[in-house]
Structures are given as C-alpha cells and as structure tokens.
C-alpha cells in the first residue's frame, strides 16, 4: 500500500480516537509526530490503511508545573514536541537529564516533529531510560478510564492504551542531585541507539542517599537496574567496590541482539558507560565527600 492510499482520521478528543481505533482494529495506527513510523516505513514495513492523527487533540500539548502533596511536579502533555520539551525552562532547570537526552535524538528537524508521547509509546525510545531514572509516572487512557502509574509499571504491560501525560516529581532531598545520561548510536539519524543509559543519584556526607539507574538500546525495552542500585544505595562511597558493581551491571540486563550488535556487546558498553560516569563523579566530588 502507498501512503497516498492511506486514510487519515483527525479525532477531536481521546474518546473519539479510541472509538475509531476500536472499529478499525489492526487496520489503523495512532500517529502524532510520526517519526517512529517513518523508521518502519524506511525499512519496508507497509503503510497501514488508516492513520489516526492525534495532533488535533489540543488538551495534551501543554507543559506545566503543579504542587501535589507538598511536592513540585511537572506535567508534560504526550503530544508536546521533543524540541519543546528539550528547551522548556521547567525541564532544563529541574530535570536537565531529560533535556540532555532529548538533545541526542536524531536531528533538530526530527525533534521539531516528534512527540515525547510517541517516543515512549513504542517502548524503546531514547527518552525512556532518562524518565525511568527520574522515576517518572504516566497517565494514560485504556478505553474505559484515565489511569496513572509509574512508567516502569506501564512498560511491563501489553494492553492497548494512549499515553496522555508524563509526570515528573522533584526528589525530596536537601542535597544536590547528580544526573547523567549517555547514548551510543549509529550514524543514521533515524536508527535506534546501540545503548542508552541514565542515572540520578544524591549523596550526603559520603553516603549514597539514593540512586536510580536505567538502560536501554536497540529493540530492548529499557528498565531500571534495581539489583545494581541496591549495591549502591545507603552505602559509604569509599567502601563501594567498583568491580562488584561492574559485574552486577553485566549480569542484570539482557539487552536484545540485532543484525548489527550482540546482546553481550551492548551489556559491556552499558556497564562501561555506567562505571565511567561513577569515576567521573568521584573525581569531581572526591574532596567534597570525605569521611
């Protein structure tokens, strides 16, 4: 099928969009920015008979801050463009990790079209490790109601749903957080990353107050590396054994192989990236956090 033969639907609200998809089933695909679908089409995947364009649903384009249960939160509409998220002052100032990661996605022209919800919806997007490290939540419509839960839980489900918002909550800590993200990618603008990692940690007087680590890459669904986190949480920095952490990182996440890179190669790259970030932090803060 050629793209000119595809019918485009433009619903005005989430309910209408869901009803169209329900009636057309596998003959229809939701689309907002469309950059992820473009990667599939360039690989020869046929165009669907129907596209359901979500861009006219204005309710979920916003980015705003709120106070919820004495915590500062940012709500990011799923249809907000990646470029807008990258450059938004609320995100850059408080959740720079996400802003930095978005800056590694393809080219500026792609980020001006693609949406953050679309990047998450395919479950392999490069923003996901950063959002997992930030302990993000999502709100989504499942056909009956709007629900809210951690992104980590949503990724483990296979049920159909429409992501509406991404919610970030500022950690309740009086200490400076260290946020980092790294991506190893291929040269093609639309190609999936080889490995993407992200982390957030807070250290008080030489003790790891908390640490969140996440990784993804290629067709792997990103995940939190909780076993590795447990080896670091509440530990004195000077007593942490880097080799033990490295070995756990190698074992914890089975990244998916593809035609270009093996799972073993991806694991080693991810583990090396994490350890390099840890050593960089130690060098930069060694004089600050001492016994």
UniProtKB/TrEMBL annotation:
Residues 1-173 form the FAD-binding PCMH-type domain. Keywords: FAD, Flavoprotein, Oxidoreductase. It comes from the Bacteria. PROSITE patterns: FAD_PCMH. SUPFAM superfamilies: CO dehydrogenase flavoprotein C-terminal domain-like, FAD-binding/transporter-associated domain-like. Pfam families: CO_deh_flav_C, FAD_binding_5. This is FAD binding domain-containing protein. It comes from Niallia oryzisoli.
């Amino acid at each position: 099928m050629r793209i000119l033969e595809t019918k485009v639907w433009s619903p005005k609200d989430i309910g209408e969009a869901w009803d169209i998809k329900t009636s057309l089933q596998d003959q229809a695909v939701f689309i907002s920015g469309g950059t992820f679908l473009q990667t599939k089409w360039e690989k020869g995947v046929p165009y669907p008979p129907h596209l359901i364009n979500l861009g006219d649903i204005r309710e979920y384009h916003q980015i705003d801050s709120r106070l919820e249960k004495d915590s500062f939160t940012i709500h990011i509409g799923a249809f907000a463009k990646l470029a807008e998220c990258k450059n938004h002052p609320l995100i850059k100032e408080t959740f720079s990790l996400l802003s930095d990661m978005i800056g590694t996605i393809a080219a500026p022209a792609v980020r001006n079209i693609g949406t953050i919800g679309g990047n998450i919806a395919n479950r392999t997007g490069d923003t996901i490790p950063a959002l997992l490290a930030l302990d993000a939540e999502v709100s989504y419509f499942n056909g009956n109601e709007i629900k809210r839960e951690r992104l980590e839980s949503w990724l483990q489900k296979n049920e159909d749903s429409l992501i509406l918002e991404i919610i970030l909550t500022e950690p309740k800590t009086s200490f400076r957080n260290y946020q980092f993200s790294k991506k190893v990618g291929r040269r093609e603008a639309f190609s999936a990353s080889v490995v993407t990692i992200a982390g957030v940690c807070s250290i008080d007087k030489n003790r790891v107050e908390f640490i969140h680590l996440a990784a993804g890459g290629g067709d792997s669904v990103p995940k939190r590396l909780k076993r590795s986190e447990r080896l670091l949480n509440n530990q004195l920095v000077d007593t942490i054994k880097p080799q033990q952490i490295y070995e756990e990182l190698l074992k914890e996440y089975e990244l998916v192989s593809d035609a270009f890179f093996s799972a073993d190669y991806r694991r080693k790259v991810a583990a090396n990236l994490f350890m390099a970030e840890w050593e960089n932090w130690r060098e930069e803060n060694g004089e600050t956090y001492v016994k």
